[in-house]
Amino acid sequence: MVGTAWDTTMKQIALSEIKDDFSRFLHEAESEQIVITRHGKPAGVLVGFASEDDWFDYRLEHDPPFHDRITAARASIQAGRGVRLEDLATPLKGSKTSKP
Description:
Elements: E1 11-14, H1 15-20, H2 22-28, E2 34-38, E3 41-46, H3 52-61, H4 64-78, H5 85-88
């Protein structure tokens, strides 16, 4: 593992080494992202997923439209246009699902 000022916590592996044993490194990437270097410089990151849930979480974390929706929702709540969770548990008055 080569440490640099830009990130000393990720394992760094040369592209030539990754190509020789990709399957092994993909398995390792399930628990730790691996920085792939080309000529000693960072060229990419190998991210593995131990489960479909991990893949789903990764997609959400890296989805700009999802982040935009979260930002808009937070702004709406800050502006007082939100519904409290406690209010969702209370049936609406006059609705067909409310009990007398």
